[in-house]
Design a protein that fits this description.
about 220 residues; L,D-transpeptidase catalytic domain-like; four-stranded mixed sheet; 12 strands
Length: about 220
Amino acid sequence: MKLLFTSLIAVASAFAFSSCATTGSGDLGAYDKYDLPATKPTNPSNVRVKVSTNAQMCYVMEGNKPLLVMPVSVGTSSTPTPKGNYTIYSKQEYRRAATHGYFDLGGGRYSGGYLRNKPAGSKFIGTPMPYWSEFKSGYGFHTGWMKDRPCTHGCIRMHHNVAPKFFALIKEGTPLNIAYSQPEDKTIGRNVPRPPDATPLPDFPVSYMVTNKVYKRHKTPTFN
């Protein structure tokens, strides 16, 4: 599927949801089949999250027990994911970006870009960022196309089938540590398969991205 306007392709690399995708003929079916197991905590107050930027792995832990171990995509060297200790302080399942997205020009016509360049008379619809979990102003976990290499503008991207599980396991107030590496990289993180590289996959049409369907394209989340 091709984007409706070439102008959207030109700015797509700046978009949080679609920037890992390019037009192509990859196997979307294989990408959509990817999933990982998750376990609900005994005490949600004891849940904490650890992220390794080098391994591009996220560990949702309850004490020493892993509840979810998932590959993620992190920021590039020029737009790195911030390191340090944080707290998840905002969760929004249906979040859209406030600075970039799509412009409804009317009559089924759309273009894309940054809000500052909004065409006169158009309606702005932000880039979808499903299952947003913010830990620093402008930085958060969210659903997005994933690559094997760092590819984001600093946010932490999750596969769409795993994101709702992460969202259910954490809460506002969950502590988060982001570091270059984590001890779990050498143990529970070693053999977790990554999803297929989304690079060859085609972008979704704008007519789909501006609807709420994009928030529910995942499998129904299940827990052990």
